[in-house]
Amino acid sequence: MQNNTVVITGIGLISSLGEGVDAHWKAFNDGLEPRIDSETFKPYAVHPLVEVDWNNQIPKRGDQRQMETWQRIGTYTAGLALQDAGIKDDESLCASMDMVVAAGGGERDVSVDTQILAEARVRNDIGTMLNEKLTTELRPTLFLAQLSNLLAGNISIVHKVTGSSRTFMGEEGSGISAIDTAVARIRSGQSTHALVGGSYNSQHPDMLLGYELNGMLKRDGWAPLWQREDSEGGGIVTGSGGAFLVLESAEHAQKRGARVYAAIDGIYSAQIRRSRDDLTQTVAKLIGAASADKAADLIISGASGAKHVTAVEKAAFDTFSSSAVRGVAGKLGHLREAQFPLVVALAALSVFNGSAFPPVDAKNEKAGPSSVNTALATSIGGTRSEGVARLVKV
Amino acid sequence: MSKYTDHLGRPLVAITGLGVVSSLGQGKEENWAALTSGTSGIHTITRFALDNLRTQIAGTVDFLEESTKGASALSQKLASLAAEEAVAQAGFPVDDFGGPLFLAAPPVELEWRNRFALDALVKSEGEPGYDLLLAACRRGPQEDMFNTAEFGYIAEVLADKFGTRGLPITLSTACASGATAIQLGVEAIRRGESDRVLSIGTDGSVSAEALIRFSLLSALSTHNEPAHKAAKPFSKDRDGFVMAEGSGAMVMESLESAVARGANVLGIMRGCGEKADDFHRTRSKPDGSPAIGAVRASLEDAGIEEGAIDYINAHGTSTPENDKMEYLALSTVFGDRISSLPVSSNKSMIGHTLTAAGAIEAVFSVLTIQTGTIPPTINYDNPDPAIVMDVVPNVKREASVSSVLSSSFGFGGQNTCLVMTAEPN
């Protein structure tokens, strides 16, 4: 079996902070204030998506109409990643490219749902009423526009990536598994190049409901990521955005003269039973494993803000004295499925630039280091699944 | 090439445990008896009201306590039953499997019953809508409801119950999902990540809303009377698929480790192939090239010629589009031989089990190899003259089958095929 080096050659990013690699690097380095919408979904705050001209990556209006927002964000971001890697218009590279997408779903039709809730209050024949309303009011194409595997389907249609198409589900864990699987396949020679990532739309009440059923959202406006333990509600402020990566074997990248951001040296993941097992120890163990040879210079944390879990992650970091930490959800929100791809991308950028951007929450994050050759990226799920990636300079 | 590696020097993958649940019953024995006797599990739906519905039939699993508890609870139970059977057959401890879990599960949303229950909590506070549902949540956590809407929940429960290792993978590749779960397992064994894997496809998601969504895409049969005649793959009068539920589970191991521990090897998972379609969200590229590519990729991955395939367990959904395109793909790859090569569709009896289909049909493919019985395509009363295939019409057939191709094609351009053989070489 082969043991290929796996490198990142393309990054697509979009969020409340802007569009593209440079915009994000600049936003973090310039210490821009986070963009927050605290009004639309009061008492919840969200980080709204930057204004996007969808035509830039999804030229056909017909295609745009067939997607709900998270699919559109994902398809757009995938296009950015392909473009960044210089293979967007390379038909044969796209046709042989593998794809793993970390997907959610949802984004139901708010107006239809509201009508049904209203009818249900006044009718006794609920089943009949549901059939009546759903058959007459549901937009036929909505099903596909919110179906999990149709983000990948749309990427195939719009960007012609057709080597393979796999959609992983399961909140933060799906992002971890997606990158883990794509890396493992390239490392072992089962694949030469892959597109991997995810997207999330925070600006939809159905998506907020998914979290708030378990009381996980922060209810008193935005606060710095590491300072939410005493706030009202569950601590999470979600953000809209997407993150996609183009991964290749080093040999494949070199042959086509691609620019390399960083190598993914390892993915360390777990899913403990948190009611029983110790999360602090688990996180510390994963970071320990990822730092076995040498401590990383920087940790880009995907901490969601979820109370307790975020504090535990911080406590685990604090047992390692050397590394500087950056909690990026404090700046652009929690992107759930896309959170791990996002932090891996930002860690790769830090390694590529050889420097860390300034602390996002200066009270709780150390300045420095002077140079970055290795960086870790973490995503510890709000409810389950734990993952750490190690990025190294090539 | 040692006796434990394939043509590319990769570990051969043995199948050592199988489990299945469908509308035909629970367990391999019950299912196989019904399937080979041409019994249909399709029936008039009793789970929810049928007023205003053009399609009133499905292959729901109605015999479990969880059958009325919602998509998440039923999908979990179905997966659990199939996995118990598979793990027990393989001879591993049912609570300490010791390998990774790959779960194909339906993307489920918060059920209407739960939305109504939330609304009932806050009815007096204002107009109904999402604002009020969110206000209801602020009264206190609804953990049970939360779990039903979390995509990662079922795999977490199964991982805990069966003692699988690591972060389980939950996946969806639409109607190819079950096959993808198996493919991911095969790849993990070939990479040497584990000597055993548990792959499951499960789907218990038939609800009024799910049915209406497919109905609005004109994908479903409206042949409500008699229900058992509705699924008629490759027939001229086929008019759509029939939604159904079930689960298939497979324990796979490196052949070397299976032999070393003295396990009973049921078959070999020889090859997997896939190719995505970039043509349309629900329709295939007119030239069938992605499906053709997936079939060819699976044969190539298996290292066998098309002439070595004895039987094809078809996707055969009974939609006008799928069966036509599947025939185009198969006849392109297999040439003239397709008219005499047995090709049957389990969906004629169990319906389209969606996320579970690829896994259930892989289980039935291995049973075909083991028993030498090919299950029929029932309801084949009006052959489509444009599809010239031996569909094993209406009655099972005894035949020596040493290699099977199982195909799965799904919305979103998903095409995945599996090749299973009796022997390693």
UniProtKB/TrEMBL annotation, chain A:
Q: Which InterPro entries match?
A: Beta-ketoacyl_synthase, Ketoacyl_synth_N, PKS_Beta-ketoAc_synthase_dom, Thiolase-like
Biological process (GO) annotations held by this record are:
fatty acid biosynthetic process
| Alphabetically ordered keywords of this record | Transferase
- The superkingdom of the source organism is Bacteria
What Pfam families does this protein's entry cite?
ketoacyl-synt
Q: Which Gene3D superfamilies match?
A: 3.40.47.10
Q: Which GO terms describe its molecular function?
A: 3-oxoacyl-[acyl-carrier-protein] synthase activity
List each copy of the Ketosynthase family 3 (KS3) domain by range. 6-359
The identity of this protein, by name, is: 3-oxoacyl-[acyl-carrier-protein] synthase II
Q: Which organism is it from?
A: Phyllobacterium bourgognense
Taxonomic path? Bacteria, Pseudomonadati, Pseudomonadota, Alphaproteobacteria, Hyphomicrobiales
UniProtKB/TrEMBL annotation, chain B:
* Molecular functions (GO terms): 3-oxoacyl-[acyl-carrier-protein] synthase activity
The protein's name = 3-oxoacyl-[acyl-carrier-protein] synthase II
Give the domain of life: Bacteria
Pfam families the UniProt entry points to: ketoacyl-synt, Ketoacyl-synt_C
* Listed pathway(s): Lipid metabolism; fatty acid biosynthesis
> Mind listing the GO biological process terms from this record?
fatty acid biosynthetic process
One Gene Ontology cellular component annotation?
Answer: cytosol
Q: Which UniProt keywords apply?
A: Transferase
- Give the Gene3D superfamilies listed for this entry: 3.40.47.10
Report the family membership.
Answer: Belongs to the thiolase-like superfamily. Beta-ketoacyl-ACP synthases family.
| Listed InterPro entries | Beta-ketoacyl_synthase (IPR000794), Ketoacyl_synth_AS (IPR018201), Ketoacyl_synth_C (IPR014031), Ketoacyl_synth_N (IPR014030), PKS_Beta-ketoAc_synthase_dom (IPR020841), Thiolase-like (IPR016039)
Domain Ketosynthase family 3 (KS3) intervals? 10-422
